[in-house]
Amino acid sequence: MNDRHPHPRRRPGGGPRAGRGPGAGADGTDALEREYARIGRADDIDLAADLLALVPVHEGRDPGRLRAWAARAVGFGRALAAREQGPHTGAAQVVEHAAGGLAPGEVLLAEYLQAPSGDRIVVYADALDYAHRVARAAGWERDYPPSAVREAALAHEEAHRALHAGHGRALRDRIGHDLLRWGPLRLRGHVAGADEIAAHAYAHARCGLRRSPLALTAAIAATLAHHGTDPSGPDPATPTGGRP
C-alpha cells in the first residue's frame, strides 16, 4: 500500500516524516495512545479526508471540499471492488522482498511496477512486519493479522493497476474536480491522493476486513511522527491502544 508506480516513494497518504513529532518525549506514549483511539473511532470518510489534508497541495483547502472528494473516492473504490468479485484475472506477478520497505519517515508495504516483461507487485516483508506491529500497538491485532495485512497490500496495488489500466479517468470524473470550464466544456483535474483513498477502499471491500486499511495507514502516519521506522518503536509486545 503506498506505491511509487513509477513516481518516487511516498509516505502513507502524504503523511508526516519521522522524527520527534508532536507529542514525542515524556508524554509521547500517551499522545500516541490518544491518537490511536481517535483513529479507531473515526469513520472511513473522516480518515480519508484527514489523509487528503496531509497532502501538501491540499494545504488551505476547504475541509468540506476535501471531505466531499474523500467520500467520492471511497465510494468509487468500493464500487470498483463490487464489480470485480471473484479471482483476479491476469493478475500481476508477486515478488517478495525481505527488506526495502522502510526508510526514514517512510513505510512502503507494496508497490505496483510496470515493465515490458510483465506487471509486478513487489511486497516488502520488513514494512509488513512494521505495519502489523503498529496494529498490535493500537490494540487492533485481531483486525490486522499478518496474512490480512499482506492480502490488503496486494489488493491495494491491484486497485492501482486497475486505475492505471483505464479506471483512473472514471475516478477523475467521479471526483468532479474541474480545472477549467469553458461553456459546456470541462477539463477534469487530478486530485492528489484520491487514487490512494480509492485503493484503500477497494482493498477494504475486496478483503472483507472489519477495520479499513485507512485506519492502519493513519495509525502508521501517527507512529512515524512519534517513533519513525526505528525497529525499537512501536514496541511489538505491548499494546498502547485499545480495541473499540
From TrEMBL:
Residues 1-31 are annotated as: Disordered. Residues 13-26 have a biased composition (Gly residues). Residues 1-12 have a biased composition (Basic residues). It comes from the Bacteria. This is Uncharacterized protein. It comes from Nocardiopsis composta.
